[in-house]
Amino acid sequence: MPLDIRKPTWLAELVDRELAEYDPVEAQLRIPPDLRDAGSPLEARARMLATRSTGRRRAPEDGALTPEEDFLERATVHVRLALDVSLLAGSPFEPSRRRAELAALLAALAGRVSEAAAADPGRPGGGAAPAVRRAFAAAAAAQRRVAWPPGDPRGGLPLSAGELALERWLLAALASGYQALGRLDEAEVRRRLAESGRDLALLVEALASRAAAAGKLDLHRRREALRQATRLPVAAGVKARLRQRVRLPRGAGELARAAPVPLRSFLLEQLLLADALDPPGAGPTGFSEAFAAESGIGGEQLAAMRAEAALRAAGQLWLERVLDGTPAGWLADGWGEATDQVAEKVAQVVTDNLEAIVTEVKQTGELGQLLAKAAAGKALSAEEKRRVREQLVDLARAVPALAIFAAPGGMLLLPILAKLLPFRLLPSAWERRRGAPPSEEPPAE
Q: How does DSSP classify residue 284?
C-alpha cells in the first residue's frame, strides 16, 4: 500500500516497511568488500557508503518517478544507509531496538536534538514508544519542509544533488558516531549539525556566485535562490548571512579561500556539475576554472572531474525533467514537445562530437552491431542493454558527451544515436536489411 506523505506517520510506516524487508545477510553481500574491512575507520567507510548511495535512483526505463515516489526514495535510502552503517559496525540486527535508533538518528539529522535524545534506546530511560513516535513525527515534518517538493525550482540554483550529498554525509557521521559510542552524544550531534549547515551555506553561495559570474543571477533567479535558502536546515544566523551572500556573492578566489580545504573538491564538483547542466550553447564563465586554480586542482584531476560531472549531469535534471511522466514507449508512440527537446539535444551532441564518437564506436565492434539493431527498431535484451551501457560509460570518459546515453534512461535514446551515425559504421547485414548492396553506402535520409 502506498505511503501517504501528508500523514504525520509516513516516516514511521516507511521505517517499519524497511525493517520488515531488511535482510542482514543479503545486505552484507551487497556492500562492497572494501567497505566491509573492519580495519578501516567506521566513519570513513560510512561516508563512502553515503557517497555511493547518492547514485541510487530508479532508471526511467522502469517508469518515471512521481514527485511522491522521488521524495519517498530519498527517505528510503536514508533508512537503508543507517541500517547498513550499523551492519558495518557489527551491531546485531534487533528490529525493535533498530527502530528506536532510526527514530533518534533521523530526528537528529533534522536538527531535533531533544526529540532524538528522548528516543535514543542507548540512553537510560530512552527509547520509550511515545518518545519514538514523537521523534519520527518531528523528523517526518522536517523532511517535508526541506525536501518537498523534490528537486530544484525552475530558474533556481542546481542545488539538490549537493544538498543530498551533504545530508547523506551528515547521516553517515551521526550513524557511525552512534554505533561507536552506543548512544547519541548531544554535543557532538550539535557540532556536526553546525558544520553541515556551514558547508551547505557555502554550497549555495558557490552556485549563486557562479550564476552571478555568468550574468544569470537576475531578480527572478535571485528570488528563487533565496526561496531555496529559506528551506535549508541551517541555523537562523547562518541563514541570514546566506541571504546576504546570495544578494552580494563573492568571487571564485575569495570563496575558495573561505572554504575549508576538505570541502573545496566537493564544491568544485558541484560547480562542474552546474556547468554540465547548462543548456546547449551556454559558454563557460571561467568561474569553475578560477575556483579550481585557487584550490590547487588542475590538469588530469580537473579533466577527470569534468568527465565525472558530465556523467552525473546526464542522469540528473535533463532526463528527469524531459522524460518525467513520459511513457517508456514514447519513441514508438510519436513525438511531443518533450521528445522534440530530446531529439534536438541528442542531435546537437552527436553532431558536435561526431568525429570522436565515430572513432570510439569503430574501435568497439559489438557496440556498432547493437546500435544497428536498435536503429532497426528491434528491442535489445536486458543483457545487451547492460553491455551497451557499460561500453558507453567507458567511452564517456573519453567523449563526455556520450554520458547522455550512459545515464539512467539512456537506453531510450539509442535509436536516435544509431540513426544519426554514418551508415558506414553499421554492419553490412544491417545495410542489406535496408535494401542496399553490401558494397554501397545507403543514401542519407
A: P
Phi-psi region of 150 (alpha: psi -120 to 50; beta: other; left: phi over 0): beta
Residue 59 cell numbers, joined: 532508471
Whole-angstrom Cα distance, residue 341 to residue 348? 11
Is 341 found in the same domain as 266? no
Q: Cα separations (Å) of 131 from 106, 118, 178, 307? A: 13, 6, 18, 47
**For the whole prediction, is pTM greater than 0.90?**
no
Among 263, 292, 316, give the residue marking a domain's end: 316
Residues 204 and 330 in one domain: no
Residue 132 lies inside a defined structural domain of this protein: yes
Nearest to 292 by CA among 268, 273, 322: 268
Q: Count of H helices and E strands in the chain?
A: 24, 0
Using CA atoms, how far apart are residues 120 and 104, in angstroms rounded to an integer?
5
308 and 343 in one domain? no
pLDDT in tens, 408-437: 555 556 666 665 666 444 444 334 444 444
Residue 146 contacts residue 211 (beta carbons within 8 Å)? no
Q: How far is CA 61 from CA 277, 319, 410, in A?
A: 21, 11, 9
Reduced to 3 states (helix: H, G, I; strand: E, B; else coil), residue 22 is coil
Q: Is residue 441 part of a domain?
A: no
CA dihedral 381→385→386→389, nearest 10 degrees, is: 170
Burial of 330 (0-12, 13-18, 19+ CB in 10 A): middle
The type of residue at 313 is A
pLDDT digits (tens, 9 = 90+) for 48-71: 989 888 864 444 444 456 888 889
Establish if 257 belongs to a structural domain: yes
Residues 294 and 340 both lie in one domain = no
What range does the domain containing 381 cover?
A: 326-433
Contact criterion met (CB below 8 Å) for 11 and 143:
yes
How many angstroms separate the CA atoms of 404 and 349, rounded? 9
Whether residues 419 and 306 fall in one domain: no
CA nearest 193: which of 166, 221, 153, 154?
A: 166
Q: What is the distance between the alpha carbons of residues 369 and 430, in angstroms, rounded to a whole number?
A: 8
User: How many domains does the chain fold into?
Assistant: 2
Q: How far apart are CA 315 and CA 420, in angstroms?
A: 21
Arithmetic mean of pLDDT, 126-152:
93
The DSSP code for 316 is: I
Q: Which three cell numbers stand for residue 346?
A: 541528442
User: pLDDT tens digits for 308-342?
Assistant: 777 666 555 444 443 343 333 333 333 333 344 45
